[in-house]
Amino acid sequence: MSIDYYREGEPVADTKAPAGPIEERWEKRRFSGRLVNPANRRKLRVIVVGTGLAGASAAATLGELGYRVANYCFQDSARRAHSIAAQGGINAAKNYRNDGDSVHRLFYDTVKGGDFRSRESNVHRLAEVSTEIIDQCVAQGVPFAREYGGLLDNRSFGGAQVSRTFYARGQTGQQLLLGAYQALQRQVAAGTVDLHTRHEMLELVIADGKARGIVVRDLVTGEISTEIADAVVLATGGYGNVFFLSTNAKGCNVTASWRAHRKGAYFANPCYTQIHPTCIPQSGDHQSKLTLMSESLRNDGRVWVPKAKGDQRHPADIPEDERDYYLERRYPAFGNLVPRDIASRAAKVVCDEGHGVGPGGLGVYLDFADAIARLGKPAVEAKYGNLFDMYERITGENPYERPMRIYPAVHYTMGGLWVDYDLSSNIPGLFVTGEANFSDHGANRLGASALMQGLSDGYFVLPNTISDYLADGPFEALDETHEAVVAARKEVDDRIAFFLNNDGDRTVDSFHRELGKIMWEYCGMERTDEGLRKAIGLIRDLKAEFYKRVKVTGKAEELNQQLEKAGRVADFFELGELMCIDALHRTESCGGHFRAESQTEDGEAKRDDDRFSYVAAWEYGEDAPVLHKEALVFEYVKPTQRSYK
Amino acid sequence: MSTDLQSRTAARPAKRAPKPTGPWRSNIGLKIAMAVSGVLLVLFIIVHMAGNLHVFEGREEMNAYAHGLRTLGEPLLPHETVLWVLRVGLIVLAAVHIWSAVVLTRRSLAARPVRYHSRKPAKGESRHAVATMRWGAAVLVLFVAWHLLDLTFRTVNPVKDVPDAYGAVVATFSPERWPVTVFYLLALVALGFHLRHGVWSAVQTIAGPDTKWRKRTQAVALAVALVVVVGFAIVPLSVTFGLVK
Amino acid sequence: MKLKLRIWRQSSADAKGRMVSYELDDVSEDASFLEMLDVLNERLIAEGDDPVAFDHDCREGICGACSLVIDGQPHGPQAATTTCQLHMRKFKDGDSIDIEPWRAGAFPVIKDLVVDRSAFDRIIQAGGYISAPTGTAPDAHAVPIPKQDADAAFSAAACIGCGACVAACPNGSGMLFMGAKVAHLGLTPQGQPERATRVLGMVAAHDEAGFGGCTNTGECAAACPKEIGLDVIGRLNADFRKAAIRAA
Lengths: 645, 245, 248
Known about the structure:
The complex is a heterotrimer.
Chain A: E1 7-8, H1 22-32, H2 38-41, E2 45-49, H3 53-65, E3 68-72, E4 90-91, H4 103-113, H5 120-139, E5 165-166, H6 172-190, E6 193-196, E7 199-207, E8 210-218, E9 224-228, E10 231-234, H7 255-262, E11 267-268, E12 273-279, H8 297-300, E13 302-306, E14 323-324, H9 326-330, H10 340-352, E15 364-367, H11 369-375, H12 377-395, E16 404-413, E17 416-417, E18 430-432, H13 450-470, H14 483-501, H15 508-523, H16 529-549, H17 561-585, H18 609-612, E19 614-619, E20 626-631
Parallel strand pairs in A: 1-20, 2-3, 2-10, 3-6, 10-18
Antiparallel strand pairs in A: 4-5, 7-8, 8-9, 11-17, 11-19, 12-16, 13-14, 13-15, 15-16, 19-20
Helix pairs in contact in A: 1-5, 3-6, 3-13, 4-5, 5-13, 11-12, 15-16, 15-17, 16-17
Chain B: H1 27-52, H2 59-71, H3 81-111, H4 127-152, H5 165-172, H6 178-206, H7 211-240
Helix pairs in contact in B: 1-3, 1-6, 1-7, 4-6, 6-7
Chain C: E1 3-9, E2 18-24, H1 33-46, E3 69-70, E4 73-74, E5 96-100, E6 109-111, E7 114-115, H2 118-125, H3 147-157, H4 164-168, H5 175-186, H6 195-208, H7 219-223, H8 231-247
Parallel strand pairs in C: 1-5
Antiparallel strand pairs in C: 1-2, 3-4, 3-5, 6-7
Helix pairs in contact in C: 2-6, 3-5, 5-6, 5-8, 6-8
């Protein structure tokens, strides 16, 4: 490919995971990592940015350990972080169902599900820790679904052949987050955590090569201030909003990660995005976000489209033999439960062929008629009632009577800041947890694994690994006059001044929407060499226009939601370009990244392990990004081509 | 050393010392005081209402009942001792009930300093309560004052002879004094609405029933309100319409 | 559809606010209420005006960020629906709609329709948790919980902390919010050890924040987008009574 898009640098490697049998590595690392004496912990300050599952759990746990924690979120309350919207559940290798599950099986499924693009050591640790998460959450009072005997209920989720998913109706993320939020508030009351809501991190402070603080804007007063600490933890979530329309909350953004990236942190696998197959289709141009419905719907719903192209009949009028249950047809073993990427792409294929239903032909049916006949309406209602209600509120259609219409939407980003086994980025003192890191999901995340990873990182991994770094602290005192602090503040001030003084005529949202369309078209479910090259050009042009024409009203010293958006969209432009470059350089198909040039004869994704069995860790470069490859070694799960036939 | 000085959050703002108020001065504590005093006052009202029905037995029985109240506990206790104990008890209950209501109302008004521009009719389980509890209470306070001057102290009653309770009742509700009867009935309406909400609200505050029992309590409250209103109303109406002379 | 909007505009916490009228043409009935406001804001920015500030985030009815008293009703006319999930098909062409912020002394206005709800966080800090430091937990199956208790705990825990209960309450009371948390934790075996201190602490924080008392009118439950019922306030009262008597 063209060399001007990027340069290749030295390989990068994770130096923290111990060698030896995989099931002993986490224990070994906890032993080899240095500890901080309890009396010294209160001399150490740790900044945690974000209060989602990964942030709140980390802040609460570090507070419990005795560190002095400063925790930031842009929302008006820590409880509103977008983890709250996760519906389906959380995996854990408890094997409560005696159906053959084990830590090793969860490890195996996750590596395989990630299409062999994740690190075995990390994933195994995730599987090990998964069981403790459930224990922890139950102790916090999380009201998981239970059986009549009083024990926890489990379900099979997202293509897993064992029932290892714990859930709380369709609001598992909410309940887990409230557990973490309450633990966090307990530490706030205890005085170990200083929580700052309505504050947005706008810059990372690096002094003497170490991450030492952040610059934040108080979103109410507009005041810019600096928080200095001994370590910084970013738990700032994913960047799906680069697509404008996604299932992310409106406020989700990449700014914290991107600012760290611009200061030297590697951004790994940015092109790995997960498209969720069961979302409510777009209804018009006013659309501001897409709403996901839990994948658990696919346990009982059957996906189909009319066999005839452009069939406008009411779904009930389409006889059985004129329906194409394409997932059951193409993947008889897994049927409607094929992994997310496969289900999504299959929907795109049938819609591209003209079989789609609903506005613009961008939708497929998810039909519960059989389930209602088999289980009865009350049983279906008990399982999915809240999802059905939500669907009806949004679309005005009753899914008990008429099949739901669904279409894929951007949902989760597997890529993120590069971290080692200790969750440390390549910048000493900068740790990254949860969706913000590139983590454990490889090229594709399994259902009910995001909650698991966020809580694993925050409750159990980071608090154990960060001490090895903090053992060298407290670090030299910094103050407001330190050149690194002054420079970081100036960058923030300049950006804000630019936006407010720019004599433009277009709203931030209009640019964001346009960027999103480019990303969805060329860097969405299916990517091509030609499309990505075109997208990079379009993004660059649009970005130039953005800086020329963007219009931000109001002042800096007030609640100014346009100003907040402008900064976030500016970073999305740069991220979007990097995503396209990453997608362009990875000429294989893997997981959530499907390159049209790399598919099997029957249209399935074709990996290229010989050339691409690595993590692409990108270093920021003014002219072009620099690629650092981290080779992936598979000792326990031998790469095979996925087959869900 | 560390980062104490530089961190903007190092100096935590000193926590405001909590006000020196115990749980019973809290909103719920006062509400429980209001509920308990209210329930006891309701019991008094029911007994009072039942006692009033002696009027249908005639002058002698009614006056004997009134006399019995004054001499209750004699000769063991001096004249009117029990009566005054009950009266003091009632005064204390009323004071607690009114005081907690006033404090809670003031707090409620402070909790909504700016009103809404548009208002929609109430949607809750006790939608009449918002409109009736507070003005109803004011009517009741005025009524009780009048009622004491009329039938207890007889200050405004034509019959000054205290032992003649029957005569006082007949005199005060005589047709030519119709405004007294109208005021009495108006106060009863206020009392009815007050009880319809107050009775179940008190049970909700004291016992915290689940939804099923709350619905039952609401039915009981309605029944109590109806019985009390009807029980009290038939006396003046009977006098006014000449059934009792 | 065409709409007349009257929106509360207040440039900052200290400024005086007022209702300002706007007219919108061509609103899609498939748009959500917030998307309708997005459309208005795009126009205001283009005209050089300050867009209307309002809180929102997930736009799928679960984060609790969105608020808005629409025609006198918190979260608008549709039952069990947050403002972000309210769609314009619930309105008619030519409707005029009043939009105001939550009104409560404990929720001061920050700007336009944005209010400060941090008082809710302070109530949780005062006891709305179970003290279970990370790592201390026994196996999740160590204590079975009867399904009906777990289900009831979940129903109470479904609270999204939006504050509609306070906005709807004629007394600006936060009892439904507080009751939901007291009920949730009180229904689990893990929540028992701190049950008394929890309720006393939370009630004190609630009053300290300036919320009013409960008069059992039920407006809170009627406005709750998650249909949390008055029985949680009953539980709160009962827990409080027991704890206060024991503390006396």
